[in-house]
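Researcher: Next entry in the queue.
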Amino acid sequence: MEENRSFFARLKEGLTKTRDQISQGLNAVFTASEIDDDFYEELEEILIMGDVGVHATEEIIERLKAHVKEAHLKKPEECRSYLTESIREQMQTADNAYEFENRTSIVLVVGVNGVGKTTSIGKLALMLKNQGKSVIVAAADTFRAGAVEQLNVWAKRADVPIIKGVEGQDPSSVIYDALNAFKARKADVLLCDTAGRLHNKKNLMEELKKMNRIIDRECPDVYRETLVVLDGATGQNALNQAREFHAATNVDGVILTKMDGSGKGGIAIVIESELHIPIKYIGVGEAVEDLQKFDADNFVNALFAVNEEEKRC
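Model: Structure for this entry, 313 residues:
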């Protein structure tokens, strides 16, 4: 429990810039005298400025308008709790979101260079190892200098085996070797680091398709998961990256990193709203414990400065 509180405190601190931007505006708009067009326009502007995004903001406003009409609300202050609760409900993770943790699974982790992909894989490997799972990591990001060695360091830290090639090697050949080791050792989870050259999009996407074909051939009955790692500080760029990877490889979930001081905290809402891809893990720092499963309640409370009294309403 202490660890969870500590993580929430770090998350809350990391979202300070976004929260200040949003909550100060909300405090002003909710003290308006009536619910009218000006109220909705000001609220819309506050959310967009908080990097919630145009599409997501429009959806939030439409849901609020429908609730105001249905509940016969008269005062802006009466809208506050519904606003946060509707966002909280939208961002709840499905009961089966972590199914891969409970089954023999192969997990492809994708993401552009610099988002914290390799580090996230190392943390996830340790998290699964601590759950009693037998984990293997595959260092198939063979074109980024230092990526293989970086994952090797994390594999040692997590005390899990690593299958790796040499720099410049065909990534799919590393995946092939990793699959053989995965089957031979009867491991629970294979975590695969993949290349992140989104600027060379065609080659990267073809590479991912090739990896998937090899997995289909070698392990056709094994549960599959694809997670995209996104840098939360990059805002709309993160959304664009998620969209590109989702189009190429059907992403199942998001690992949102670097939420430790960004002014772009609203991007989590945007991803859920526009792409309907769940945020599964969130990171707020470099330490192992700074990657945790996403908790919609904690996130919304941290982002909108919801206090205990408001949560009971």
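Model: Residues 308-313 have pLDDT under 50 and may be disordered.
Researcher: Noted, moving on.
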